[in-house]
Amino acid sequence: MSSLQYYSDGKLIRLRTEAVDLESEAAAAKPARRSRSGSTSSGPGTETPVSHAQHAMQAVQAQHQRLAPLFNDLQPDTRLAVLTGGAAECTVLLTETLVLESPNQALLRRLSQAYGVRVVLEGSHGKVLLRAPQAGLQGVVTVIQAARDAYEHGDGRHAAHPNFIRILRQRSPTSSGRTPLWNHLNRGNPGVRGADVAAHAAWTISQGEPSVRVAILDEGVDTRHPALRAAVVAEADFVAGQSHARPDGNDAHGTACAGIVLSRSKSWPGLASGCSLVAARIAKGDGQGGWVFDDFHTADAVDWCWSKAQAAVLSNSWGGGPPADAISNAFDRARRQGRGGLGAVVVCATGNDNGPVGFPATMNEVLSVGASTPWDERKSPSTADGENWGSNFGPSIDLLAPGVWIACADIRGKAGYSNGNYTQSFNGTSAAAPHAAAGAALVLSVAPLLGEAQVRQVLSQSCDKLPGSNAWNRFEGHGRLNLHAALRLALRSALRSAPSLQAAL
Amino acid sequence: MVAAKGSGGSAAAGDPPDAYYYADGQRVLLQADPHHAAYDLQDSRQQRGQAAGGRMLNAHVWLVALNTDDSESSMPASPPAQRLPVFRSGAMLLVALPEVRIEDDDPAHLLAVQHWLAADHQRAALLAHQPGRMTLQAGPALAHDGVTLARLVVEVCGVRSASPRLLRVSPKGPD
Known about the structure:
The structure holds two protein chains of two kinds.
Chain A: E1 5-8, E2 11-14, E3 17-18, H1 22-29, H2 52-62, H3 64-71, E4 81-84, E5 90-101, H4 105-115, E6 118-122, E7 127-131, H5 136-152, E8 160-168, H6 199-203, E9 213-218, E10 232-237, H7 253-262, E11 276-281, E12 283-285, E13 290-294, H8 295-306, E14 313-316, H9 325-337, E15 345-349, E16 367-372, E17 399-402, E18 406-409, E19 422-426, H10 429-446, H11 452-461, H12 483-496, H13 499-504
Parallel strand pairs in A: 9-11, 9-14, 10-11, 14-15, 15-16, 16-17
Antiparallel strand pairs in A: 1-2, 3-4, 4-5, 5-7, 5-8, 6-7, 12-13, 18-19
Helix pairs in contact in A: 1-2, 4-5, 7-10, 8-9, 10-11, 10-12, 11-12
Chain B: E1 20-23, E2 26-29, E3 31-32, E4 36-40, H1 46-51, E5 55-56, E6 61-65, E7 82-84, E8 86-89, E9 92-103, H2 107-119, E10 124-130, E11 133-138, H3 146-155, E12 161-171
Antiparallel strand pairs in B: 1-2, 3-8, 4-6, 4-7, 5-6, 8-9, 9-11, 9-12, 10-11
């Protein structure tokens, strides 16, 4: 199969193939479902392994009528199936067609004479589709050779490759069996195994200490929620001056954020459920799909959180608009004067516009957090989850944390994101930031003498790099949060900074 | 945006200044939003705000969408209602209240502010004064414009930090 190579981005790509007689596979997969090893189904109710190639072929057959106009001569006959990706989530069917980008007449003549391929379709921006004269396997081999020839005799800047039909396994939000708390421990549905914050492993070290207070600055927190009320140690309303921080009407955002960090529900636990909750109401819904914030109130709330309420971590799932010194100065005071001078950790969401990071996450010395998906990608409008938003990016970003389909607390009753007390679909960098806030709280639970900058450093340095990345970049920061790695690093950091303890050990 | 009036950094009549203030020492330019108006109303006028399809931003301030073919709101801003500047930053609307918070550890700068205020009591009123911090309210000489006041105390008095009080009206996130 050495001939099954083509060029992409200047590199030869070798197709990892199985020469599969798809017609036979598909036939075998029909009523008597035969496994690839040849064993037959043992009876009703028994799952028979069926290759993804078989699924793909069945899909081709099922959709032939719909696909035929698109691919003209697509026939469910013998083809080569190429299984790609570890989980074989994509089957590539080779065809008798190839794609060229901006070919000149000389190249087209050369290919026609050497391989008999002819232009059958002109696409936009100079793309053309050519077809081999032969059908089936011979045609497939012809176009692969022609594509390589075209690339090697072209200018190296324009595409020349076989035209694939890609059949993707659906990764829809409704896929059955989805694990609600994938962000804690991802077993591969949804997404990929290990694309989580390693919460279960982290909890073998700590679930948080009550002395560590986490402030949720948001549109209020349902501080009477059964999963949260025991965690509440302070609350204040900077919007209406009430004696509590509970939200109005349908304002559920802050309760969800608090739940991600501090829920004490056994079924829907927060990531730092042993820590304590400070609720600061700084916004309210305007009844028309918006929030209203007052800069002065926000700045006062920040000061109250680190000073009077003694919060060690300030979680901010809000932002955007121009910067304001009143707010920046309050955050600076939190970082410098909080925790008796060790500094409170300020965590800010980057925003959901798929654009530049928004204030206050633009500040240099806050932990700026974007969103990752169950597939361990930076969330963008085109990621597999199908949610139409993207995590903001830029030079200030520190790390990513899960921000899609997050299960967490919801305001009680029918209002909020669900009819009950919990939701399974909280989204956004608003969901990601509390993950990092919980990380900071756990780190301070095991290493309370670390300075706020050290906490940020621990969380950043212990991130898992996303696939294809080996260093900080402006889209993903240092990678995806890993709480277990952070706690281990925090313990080592604490040991290093406490020589007497080190000597005793 | 209403033009600033009075001396000490104000623009000439008919030549409205750019709307900007300072954050972290940098100019922050503001873009006026022609599609909305905001009013500081008394409670008795709230029903009129609702009738005009307004959004209540706090106990006194209403935000109203303007008719596309009319530069004025359907809700007249007769006294004691006060029209407030509205700006847009991306999808966010910003309503500038007339207040400004000054933060500066240098007493000389705060003293300079006091002298500047004393030179013309119509510029602003001192609402609060703590060590390192002052809160001012823009007066009639500045058309009650907090953004202009914030700009002027930086440019004229040299204070380190002066923030206009902005109400931010932001679309909610993905959820």
